[in-house]
Write a structure and sequence with these properties.
- The protein folds into three domains: 1-205, MFS general substrate transporter like domains (Growth Hormone, Chain: A, Up-down Bundle); 207-260; 268-467, MFS general substrate transporter like domains (Growth Hormone, Chain: A).
- 77% of the residues lie in helices and 1% in strands.
- With 467 residues, it is mostly helical.
- The protein has 18 helices and two strands.
- Helix 11 runs antiparallel to helix 16.
- It starts with a strand and ends in a 10-residue tail after the last helix.
- A two-stranded antiparallel ribbon has the order 1-2.
């Protein structure tokens, strides 16, 4: 909490920090879970919507990540200015109502539209919940509370596929309906227990035009990528998407240089470690999202796994994340953080390549998928938490929250591009031989991007690090 934070002390929850942290962490967990839980439902959603193509289904993931990425920073600034409790409750309400709408969707594009609405809610409640943790937790437990709040994201990644698999056994619609009782309970408890807080120094609105232009740019780029194989790379619609992406991005850059509260302050990009951390976040998130979906699609569409079997099969890798995140934290006292992240990127890419070289038509999870997936999980544990925790090390203290939001935005952008890249490489293979070749190429390509991330990671070691 800073000197300009205004907190209402009379709220009952102020004297019960454990309960408050539970409410805030639960809501953040729900928003993070939705990024990972939907992957396992792809097959069932496609069958329910008359065999929707992978390029169409990819928007169920991409629409969420694009909107979430573009709105995360401005939403954080807005809730800081007008009130974090109100922002948290509004964001949670939007997310919960949108979840009901997703469950009731009667067509693929209705589902995509409601996923966009979900992302708006998630983009508001995420920074609001973190802001409430920082501003209302007692000083002696504040740092530990932030770590607990952040750990919910890793837990969501680990549990997402398994929870999704269990729910899809009932219906893919339960993937969204599960949010409703949690959201309602958090709304009631939050309204009663959370303290009102805001940043009194935050007087200017953020660059909302810049956020819209960034979303347009990423969305158009994604559209061109996922539709290129179907429409043709020289089709007028694809070329038009590239043009819109370039023009919108140029507009975003211009807006960032002129607006008093830009989405990304150009001065931040002059901090070498911060810039490389964002580049690394994008390059690591691309194979992370692509490989997760590739493994799920291979297990379900080629090996014929059920949703629940797939969910538990892909949960083994994420179980390595908290273990090796702790290892990375210990190693960081002696080894430059950039070297640790670089090693994590290499291991993640290697895991995918091992799977590519191992899988065959006859299912043998223990020998063909598990080894590579565990190695990949170790890589995620070394890389992802270290990217997020060290990105702001060289930034001024008053810029650390914004810097953290930006690197999370970069990660979401990378995840959208990763799903899109997978769609491009896989295409629509027919028969086992074509599918095997397409998936192998996908794992190799994603491994190559992970290697690029390893190179970029070397530059993200903060100035004051021992390396």
């Amino acid at each position: 909490m800073t000197a300009v934070d205004v907190v209402e002390p009379s709220t009952p929850g102020v004297s019960r920090p454990g309960l408050v942290l539970g409410i805030l962490s639960l809501a953040a967990f729900m928003a993070s879970l939705d990024v990972f839980i939907v992957n396992v439902a792809f097959d069932d959603i496609g069958h329910d919507f008359h065999g929707a193509a992978l390029s169409e289904l990819s928007w169920v993931l991409n629409a969420y990540t694009i909107i979430y990425a573009a709105l995360l920073v401005p939403a954080g600034r807005i809730v800081d200015r007008y009130g974090r409790k109100g922002g948290f409750l509004v964001g949670l309400a939007i997310f919960t109502v949108a979840s009901v709408a997703c469950a009731a969707a009667q067509g693929i594009w209705w589902l995509v539209a409601f996923r966009c609405l979900q992302a708006v809610g998630a983009a508001i409640l995420t920074p609001a919940s973190l802001g409430l943790v920082v501003s209302t937790m007692p000083v002696e437990v504040r740092a530990r509370s932030v770590r607990i709040w952040a750990a919910t994201g890793a837990l969501a990644a680990a549990l997402g596929p398994a929870v999704g698999g269990l729910l899809v056994e009932i219906s893919w619609r339960w993937v969204f309906l599960v949010n409703v009782p949690v959201g309602v309970a958090a709304l009631i408890a939050g309204g009663a227990m959370l303290a009102r807080s805001r940043n009194a120094a935050q007087t200017r609105l953020p660059d909302l035009l810049g956020a819209v232009l960034l979303a347009m740019s990423i969305g158009a780029l994604t559209l061109g990528l996922v539709q290129g194989p179907d429409w043709g790379w020289t089709d007028t619609r694809v070329v038009g998407a590239w043009v819109v992406a370039a023009v919108a991005f140029a507009g975003f850059v211009i807006s960032s240089t002129r607006h008093p509260e830009p989405l990304i302050d150009p001065a931040l990009l002059k901090v070498r470690a911060f810039t490389f951390a964002n580049v690394t976040a994008v390059l690591f998130a691309i194979p992370f999202a692509g490989a997760l979906l590739a493994n799920i699609l291979w297990l379900q569409q080629v090996w014929g796994y059920s949703a629940i079997k797939t969910g538990f099969a892909v949960s083994t890798g994420p179980l390595m994340v908290p273990i090796f995140a702790a290892v990375a934290h210990r190693l960081s006292a002696r080894i430059p953080i950039g070297a640790i992240v670089s090693a994590g990127c290499v291991l993640f890419g290697l895991g995918g390549v091992i799977i590519a070289l191992s899988v065959d038509q006859t299912p043998d999870y223990a020998t063909e998928v598990l080894p590579g997936w565990l190695i990949g999980g170790i890589g995620v544990g070394l890389a992802l938490p270290s990217i997020l925790s060290s990105a702001t090390a060289d930034l001024p203290l008053d810029q650390s929250a914004t810097g953290s939001a930006i690197v999370n935005m970069s990660r979401q952008i990378g995840m959208s591009l990763g799903v899109s890249l997978l769609v491009v490489v896989l295409g629509t293979p027919i028969g086992y031989v074509a599918a095997h070749q397409a998936f192998r190429e996908a794992w190799w390509v994603l491994g190559g991007v992970a290697l690029l991330g390893a190179v970029a990671a070397v530059g993200m070691t903060p100035r004051e690090s021992g390396g």
